[in-house]
Each structure stands twice: as C-alpha cells, then as structure tokens.
Amino acid sequence: MISSAVTISLVEQARGGPFVLWDDLAAGVRTAKELGYDAVEIFAPGPDAVDRAELKSLLEETGLKCAAVGTGAGMVINKLSLTDTDPGKRQAAIDFVKSMIDFGGEFSAPAIIGSMQGRWTADLPKDEALKSLGAALIELGKYAEQYNVPLIYEPLNRYETNLCNTMADGVELLESQSISNVVLLADLFHMNIEETTIAQGLLDGGKHIGHVHFVDSNRRPAGNGHMDYAPIVAALKEIDYSDYASAEAFAWPDPTAAAKQTIEKFNELFR
Ligand code: LER
Ligand code: MN
User: Fold this and answer.
1) Which of 84, 83, 117, 113 is nearest to 98 (CA)?
2) What is the CATH number of the domain that holds 221?
3) How far, in Å, from the CA of 230 to the mean position of ligand 1?
4) pLDDT per residue as tens digits for the range 161-215
5) Does 215 sit in the ligand 1 pocket, CB within 6 Å?
6) What is the average pLDDT score of the chain?
7) Ligand 1 site, residue 156, Cβ cutoff 6 A
8) Quick check: is 248 catalytic?
C-alpha cells in the first residue's frame, strides 16, 4: 500500500519553494496528523536545526513517521555539490549529506539527494561528472546501510540539473556503476517536463523507484493542474510501488489548504 506524506520546510532561504507546510515543525506535524497523513518529510537547514528529542516526541504523540529528510539546504545555503571539482568542497558536500543521513537515520528516514547532485560544466565533462556523482552515491548508499534505510536519488528537470533528467537516466546511472542501496525519487513535477509520458517514466524506473513527490503539473497541490493521474496510478500499481507519495508542492493557496487538497486527492486515487 502507498503511504501519504507531506513536506515541512524549515529553510528560510527556500521561501517560495515547493514545500507545503512551513516554519513550525510542531504545528506542521500536528496539522499532518489532523488531516490524516501517514508521515512528514522534513526539509531542514542542517542536521542540528531540528531538536531531535522534540521531533521524537512529536512522532510518538501523533503516531506519524518521518518519510524522508531533504539535503537541498547544503546547496541552497552552503553552495555544496557532490560533483564540485574542488576536492575539499566535494568532501564538505559528502560530509554534509552524511550528517543528514545520521539525522534521518535516527528516525529511520532516508535522506534525499536532489540539488546536491550539481551539474556538468565546461570544466567537468558530463561523463566525469556522472562518475563523480556515482562515486558519491556509492559511498553515501553504503553509509546509509547502518540505519537500514536506502539513500534516495532524485532526477531533476533540465532547469535544475543536466546530469539525470529522466527515470531512465537514473536507472542507467545506478546500473552502469553498480550503485547499491540507492533508490530513485520520481517527482511528478520534474517528470511532467522531462518524460515522454509520466506513466512510461514510472515503468522505466520500475523496481528502482523508492519515493514519489506527489504534485500537479504546475507544481500546485495535486488536483490543481492538468496532470492526468489515472495512468500514473496504473503505472505505480504495475511496478508494485508501495512506498510514500509525498506532497512536495507550492503552499497554494496557503499551506493548510494545500495539505488538505493533497490528502483529498491522495485518498481519491490511492484509498
Ligand atoms: C527540487 O526541485 C526538488 O524537487 C526537491 O525535491 C529536491 O531538492
Ligand atoms: Mn522533488
């Protein structure tokens, strides 16, 4: 069975970005509970930004899970990238992700690599960038094993990375370098831009897909764009997908309404 999750952003520098609930972790977890979500996905500035005892007690109080933790603040705030050509900066990126894996690991939540993957450039040809990214994913996937969680890798649309844009690109990266304990994140917003059809992209990702960002075509909450969900639901069924559909969407028209609209659409499609 697919479980529901909703994003909570605690990153001031990401304001206006595609996160549903904002600023207040306790209020966010309680709102998610009231609306009937199974879990929250946390986008934090760093590993020490969240009071772990407080999060633990919030999850105990509500019975919610932590679905995943984002690492994008490493790029947004600290300009870190796993494909930086400066060895010191690349190492700092790896260390940052490890610290986020440690944070998520305490809650059995995998960390997500999205914008931290960086890009290829004139100074770093595409094949070398993919090797560098692959080496980082191998190391970080192995590091995550101690918590019995995978690492989640997210192909992004062309305006955010030029490394992997489709699920097929992600599968090629994982399989060509024998990367283990790393799963793909199928973000329906990025897929709507890059895939021939979203359903085919999901079939291409197949057993490698381990997380879904559930959103509409315009990045508004599911049900507020022109996304055709029927073939998406059918494709998820066909690949036996049974992890999270996590609401990563603009807080449109406001955070609580966005969370409510998403869970209603989730229940209509998956329950
Ligand atoms: C960024 O566009 C995104 O989809 C996030 O999940 C990754 O940081
Ligand atoms: Mn995403």
Assistant:
1) 113
2) 3.20.20.150
3) 24
4) 999 999 999 999 999 999 999 999 999 999 999 999 999 999 999 999 999 999 9
5) no
6) 98
7) yes
8) yes
What's the mean pLDDT in 111-136? Answer: 98
Protein residue whose Cα sits closest to atom 2 of ligand 1: 156
Tokens read off for 187 = 């973000």
What band does 33 get if pLDDT is binned at 50, 70 and 90?
A: very high
- Rounded CA separation 40/38 (Å): 7
Task: Decide whether any atom of ligand 1 lies within 6 Å of the 166 Cβ.
Answer: no
- 195 labelled catalytic: no
pLDDT tens digits, residue range 212-260? 999 999 999 999 999 999 999 999 999 999 999 999 999 999 999 999 9
Residue located nearest, by CA, to atom 3 of ligand 1: 114
d(CA 78, CA 57): 30
Q: Which residue has the tokens 């190391």?
A: 139
Full residue range of the structural domain in which residue 127 is found:
3-270
Ligand 1, atom 5, lies closest to the CA of: 114
Domains: count for the chain: 1
Distance (Å, whole) CA 25 – CA 44: 10
